[in-house]
Every structure is written in C-alpha cells, then in structure tokens.
Write a structure and sequence with these properties.
Elements: E1 5-10, H1 17-30, E2 36-41, H2 47-54, E3 59-63, H3 80-85, E4 88-93, H4 96-102, H5 106-118, E5 122-127, H6 131-135, H7 139-150, H8 156-159, E6 163-166, H9 180-197, H10 200-205, E7 208-211, H11 216-223, E8 230-233, H12 240-248
Parallel strand pairs: 1-2, 1-8, 2-3, 3-4, 4-5, 5-6, 6-7, 7-8
Helix pairs in contact: 1-2, 7-9, 11-12
C-alpha cells in the first residue's frame, strides 16, 4: 500500500479558542514538510478560526462528530453541511465515547457515514471492542457487527473515501496500548472482511488506523505493524512536541 500515512489528533472537549489557536500556531510552525497527512479535530467552537490559520498549510481539519441531517430541529447538533462550509475535510464518526456516553447506535453511525459522503467529507469510522468482549473472545464478532452495520449501503466506489480506525475501548484514555499482535490481528481481520464484502484491491486502498493511548514512545512500534496506515491520537495530540514525535515516528 503506497498511500500516505495519516495521523489524526482528536482534541475532544479540550481547549478554549485562545488555547486552540496557540496549539495550532505551534504545530504549524514546527511541522516539517513530510509524506504524512496530518489532521486535527479541535472543538466545534474553534473550527473556523483554525481553518483561517491553517490555510496554505498541509494540515487538514476534522469535525469530532456530526448529525446525519443537513438542517432541522436538532438542538445542539452540527451537520456535515456546516462542517464542510467551515473548511473540514474529515469527520470522526462512531467514536467509543459517543457510543458509550451518548447512546449512539450502529444504525445512527451508518446514517452519519452516508451523510458525510454526500458532503464530500471523509469519515473516520471508529470501531472496537470493550475489555469484557475481548476477554470473552468476542472481538471479531463485535468488529464484524460494527463494520457491517456501519457500512450498510456503502458501495465500492465510496469505500475508498472512508478511513477506518480500530480503537479498542479498553485502551482509550487508559494509558494501556494494545499489543502489536492484537493490533495486527484486528486490522487484518477488518481488511479481510472488507475484501470479502467488496474486493481485495478496494480493501487494500482503505486506510486503517489504530487508536488507543497512542504515545510518542510506542508510535514507532505501532507503525511497524503491517496493516497500520496511521494513528488516531487523543491526549497525546494536545502537547505539540509529543504529537510531532508521533507524526515523525518511523518504522524500524
């Protein structure tokens, strides 16, 4: 696979406008010209200001979530139309925190992915098992269910415009990173499933990310995993020097 590596920084509900712009300015000035695609997902309140600052740079923006409708009586929601209008190229969909705290279902996630594609946003589709599911030997069953339901109605031409992020729930925000063998097994299973449901060339073109307590220290080891095309970073992306070390990590 010859596509660029993708590193996504999910800043979650962190950062005032002032703090966000300070982080972005630091990242912009320190980021070397590279073959890595870099995406950041600041809070909604900072997205437009971030877009203005990041024009004419290689850094792209993502929304942290979206609704599947373009507009309507959905108090407090953000649509893909709005995200596209303020300069987003990506949107994170199905993050485990959305599933856990806000009751998002596979069906909702599917609607959001379909809506994102209509707005020409690249969905970063998150999936992963809980600790109890892994301990019960249900990892593949859970991944298959989330993948099939999330991609319902997605045709082959659209699949290449979707990024899939494997984020074991037990590794998110816990400081516990999955072992490279666990990452390899999960991503290989996902890619094989994509090949079975679509075809091998299409499956191989999909960028697969790993997310879950990614740090500068373990990034190089993660990038050694054959199926890894990038990482989705949470807290590690809020300190720019640490985020840069992840971006600059090399295999081997």
């Amino acid at each position: 696979m010859d596509q660029k590596r993708l590193v996504v920084g999910n800043w979650k509900m962190n950062g005032t406008l002032e703090e966000t712009l300070k982080l972005i300015t630091e990242l912009r000035h320190k980021l070397p010209s590279d073959q890595t695609d870099v995406v950041i997902a600041p809070p909604f309140t900072s997205l437009y200001s971030a877009y203005v600052v990041l024009q004419e740079t290689q850094i792209q923006l993502a929304g942290q979530n979206m609704h599947w409708e373009n507009e309507g009586a959905y108090t407090g929601e953000i649509s893909g139309l709005f995200l596209k209008e303020i300069g987003c190229a990506y949107v994170i969909i199905g993050h485990s925190e959305r599933r856990q705290y806000f009751g998002e279902t596979d069906e909702w996630i599917n609607q959001k992915i379909l809506a994102a594609l209509t707005q020409e946003l690249t969905p970063i589709f998150c999936l992963g098992e809980t600790l109890s599911q892994r301990q019960s030997g249900k990892t593949e069953e859970i991944l298959e269910g989330q993948l099939k339901k999330g991609l319902q109605g997605i045709v082959m031409n659209d699949l290449k415009n979707i990024v899939i992020a494997y984020e074991p729930v037990w590794a998110i925000g816990t400081g516990k990173t999955a072992a490279t063998t666990e990452i390899q097994e999960a991503l290989r299973f996902i890619r094989n499933l994509l090949a079975k449901n679509y075809d091998a060339p299409t499956a191989n073109a999909v960028r697969l990310l790993y997310g879950g307590s990614v740090t500068a220290e373990d990034a190089r080891e993660i990038f050694q995993v054959k199926e890894v095309n990038g990482v989705l970073v949470g807290g590690g992306s809020l300190v720019i020097d640490k985020f840069l070390k992840i971006i600059e990590a090399r295999e081997g």
